Each structure stands twice: as C-alpha cells, then as structure tokens.
Amino acid sequence: MTEPLIRTQDLRRTYQMGSTTVSALDGVSLTIDRGSFVALVGPSGSGKSTLLNMLGGLDRPNSGEIWVGAKDIARATDRQLVEFRRDQVGFIFQSFNLLPTNRAWENVALPLMLAGVGRAERRKRAELLLGQVGLAGRTEHRPSELSGGEQQRVAVARALANHPVLILADEPTGNLDSRTGREVLTLLQNLVRTQDVTLLMVTHDLNAAKFADRILHMRDGQLERDETVDQAEVAAV
Ligand code: ADP
Ligand code: MG
C-alpha cells in the first residue's frame, strides 16, 4: 500500500526582476508516494529547482499548499523550517558541497553535529554510512583526495545521516562522467529500495531519469506530463 508523503496544491512562485515578474511555478499540484523515486525533468528555467527548494523548505511559495507528512511547510515558521530541514530532509547537490578541509567522515557527520549528537556516536554513524555507500576505506580522506564519484557518495551518506524521510537531489550526476553517474544513480535507486526514504531528483538527463519509478515533466512552471517507469522494461532494453 502506498500513501503520499508529499502533496502540493496549486503552488505558485513569482520572482521580481526589476519591473518584470517571472513566474517560476505556475500552479503545481502533485502527490509523491512515500518510498518512491521520482525524477523531475524539463528544460532549463522550467521551475525544477524552484519546486525542489519549496519542498525542502528552502524557499516559500506566494500561494498554495505544501504538505510533507502532516506538516504544512508553506505555513511553517522559519524556526520550524530549520528543524524540518535538519530532521526530515537530506540534500544532494550537483557540486557535492563538501567542506574541503574536513575528512569524509566529518563531512558525513556534520548534520549529526547540528542535531547535537556526541562525537563518538557521530563518528560511528558516519563510518557506518560510508560503508553503506561503498566508501569504507575512505573515511579519513579529504574531498581533494577523492574522485568526483566518491565525493558524491560522501554527499549521499551525509544526506542520510539524520534518517531523513525525504532526499532532494538537484542534478546529482551533473558533474560526473556517464559511467560514474550511472553508479551513483544505481546507489540512489538501491537506497530507495532498501531504506525507508523517498527521493526526488532533478535532472535534465532523460537517461538518468529512467532510474526513477516515475518522471514528472515540467515546462514553464507547470507539470506537463506524469510518466510511470517500468523498471523491468528499462532493465530489458
Ligand atoms: P530550472 O531549475 O528548471 O532550470 P529554476 O527553478 O531555477 O529552473 O528557475 C525557474 C525560473 O525562475 C527561471 O526563469 C529563473 O530565471 C527564475 N528564477 C529562479 N530563481 C530566481 C531568483 N532567485 N530570482 C529571480 N528569478 C529566479
Ligand atoms: Mg535548476
């Protein structure tokens, strides 16, 4: 049985650029099931990142509703949003966003530090997570001592640190070659299959989107198409 984790209703967001108003989201209503892997595709400027940021509590709509579980994100206070992001959401970015002077395990442990977890416990959990993403032998490395694919794996482990219900990834394979990108996508796919987590991934790459269970196509701030992916069919191609 599936139940929605996310529900938005008529989401709108405009940006003021001098005297012109840009409509980044123009009435987006969607639901995303708990435990699903959803890709968000569309041309540059179609509103993908804006939508992702709204769902992660990084930005607010001008109007409309955003429910994540029982929480009304659109109407939460700033303080509630900080807690929501810290406790419920893991973020993965195109450029990895690791702290360059920190070791792999320290990067993974950062969200745990913000949540007040003690150092010994942080280290233990970070090492476990790095093992889960295939980096058991790299815990002491700094980002400059890791390949791009390895750095993104560290970022994936960091996104999982606080047991989030939701992982939001904006072009996670955008800085990786295609083979390394596929490895990271397979890792993300396996996470959704084995852990109690929901993943929404922005990508402009249709081949990357095919790793998801469902592809939402955006255009001009609206959802244009909602496509279900049959993974058995993808595997057979
Ligand atoms: P995508 O991620 O699909 O490329 P975005 O969500 O980043 O698209 O942007 C959607 C539209 O909103 C674009 O026209 C973009 O220029 C505009 N936009 C996004 N963020 C801002 C901002 N902070 N200020 C002004 N305009 C913005
Ligand atoms: Mg974007």
Cα distance spanning the termini: 28 Å
Tally of individual domains: 1
**What structural class results from the helix and strand content?**
alpha/beta
Element order: H for helix, E for strand: EEEHEEHEHHHEHEHEEH
Shape: globular
Low-confidence stretches: none
Largest sheet: 6 strands, mixed
Calculate the mean pLDDT score and round it: 95
Count of helical stretches: 8
Q: Which percent range describes the beta-strand content?
A: 25-35%
CATH homology superfamily name: P-loop containing nucleotide triphosphate hydrolases
Supply the CATH architecture.
3-Layer(aba) Sandwich
Task: State the CATH topology.
Answer: Rossmann fold
Strand order of the largest sheet: 6-7-8-3-9-10
Rg, nearest Å: 18 Å
CATH class reads Alpha Beta
Supply database-style keywords.
237 residues; alpha/beta; Rossmann fold; six-stranded mixed beta sheet; four-stranded antiparallel beta sheet; binds adenosine-5'-diphosphate; binds magnesium ion
Question: Could you characterize what this model shows?
Answer:
The protein has 237 residues and is α/β, with parallel strands linked by helices. The protein has helices at 48-55, 78-88, 104-114, 119-132, 148-160, 178-194, 206-209, 231-236; strands at 4-17, 20-33, 37-41, 63-68, 71-72, 89-93, 166-170, 198-202, 214-219, 222-228. It has a single domain (34-57, 77-236), classed as Rossmann fold. It has eight helices and ten strands. A six-stranded mixed beta sheet has the order 6-7-8-3-9-10, sandwiched between helices. Strands 2-1-4-5 form a four-stranded antiparallel beta sheet, covered by helices on one side. α3 (104-114) packs across α4 (119-132) and α4 (119-132) crosses α5 (148-160). Bound molecules: adenosine-5'-diphosphate and magnesium ion (MG).
